[in-house]
Design a protein that fits this description.
The chain folds into two domains: 73 residues, Winged helix-like DNA-binding domain superfamily/Winged helix DNA-binding domain (Arc Repressor Mutant, subunit A), CATH 1.10.10; 136 residues, Four Helix Bundle (Hemerythrin (Met), subunit A) (Up-down Bundle), CATH 1.20.120. Helix content is 74%, strand content 5%. The N and C termini lie far apart (54 Å). It is elongated, with a radius of gyration of 20 Å. By secondary structure, it is mainly α. It has a three-stranded antiparallel β-sheet.
Amino acid sequence: MPKLYKRRKRLLSDEVYEKLKKYIFLGKIKVGELETERGLAERFNMSRTPIREAILRLEKEGLVTVIPREGILIGSLNRFDLKEIFEIRRLLENFSAEKLARIKSDLDLNKLEKIIINSRKKIIKKNYVGFVDLDREFHSTIANLTKNRYILRFLEDIRDVMNLSGIKALTKSWDYEQVIKEHTDILDAIKKKDPISAKKAMDRHLINTFKAMIKILPKVEG
């Protein structure tokens, strides 16, 4: 009986975690606002224990901040946060692109090619949120092709945090045609087995993405 209870408790906590995360990204729980355990428990019609466990997981991922005696601050990126995130992204993703270009055997790059094709279709349909999703998939696919599961895991966690402000930033200030060109340059360099060009193309793309995002993010006070 205790084992069954623990399993049910864990499943409930997982369910709340996924729901909270989804609500944050969809804007149903506003970024930058303070929430409370009691308020969230009432909203989801459940006890505070699974809410508390889910919040702890979200805090570890940088999606919320627990402020003692005040509440739960739903995460919001500022310029300093973004600078730190892109320092890590440049290290990991530049390495990933360079590594793939150094692999002598043939790589299955069909997925990357399809992502670029579908990205063009998203622009035509003015589906900019879908375009941002494909950009994420492009970078995740490159990380996955390195066969280094830790790179993929780190990048997925980082992008979850970026998604709090990322879609808003990119739909306002991204040059979509330029992004496709940059993705194409990265893919071409990998195909040509040119590690130096692959690394430079990735770095150029990430720097431009950083510049696009930082335009709408708040400065750090003080």
